[in-house]
Recover the amino acids of this structure.
C-alpha cells in the first residue's frame, strides 16, 4: 500500500490497518520459523508497509496538534 492512499484514510482506519499488518507480520514470521513460508520477501514488504502506516499516523497527529495550537 502506498503512502498516498494511506493519507486518504482516517486515524481509526490507519490504526486498524496497523493492527492487520502487525498480525500478518506475526503470521509470516511464524510460517518462516516452521519452514512453510515460500516468499520470504513478503516479511520485508509488510515491515515497510507498517512503517508507512506509522509515518502517516504521526503526520496526521502532528497536523491535528498544530491546528489545535492556532
Amino acid at each position: 500500500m502506498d503512502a498516498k492512499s494511506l493519507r486518504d484514510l482516517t486515524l481509526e482506519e490507519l490504526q486498524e490497518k496497523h493492527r492487520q499488518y502487525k498480525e500478518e507480520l506475526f503470521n509470516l514470521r511464524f510460517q518462516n520459523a516452521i519452514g512453510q513460508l515460500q516468499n520470504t520477501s513478503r516479511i520485508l514488504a509488510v515491515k515497510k508497509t507498517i512503517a508507512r502506516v506509522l509515518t502517516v499516523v504521526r503526520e496526521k497527529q502532528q497536523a491535528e496538534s498544530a491546528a489545535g495550537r492556532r
About this structure: The chain is about 80% helix and 0% strand. The radius of gyration is 15 Å. The chain has one domain: 10-69. The first helix runs from residue 3 to 7.
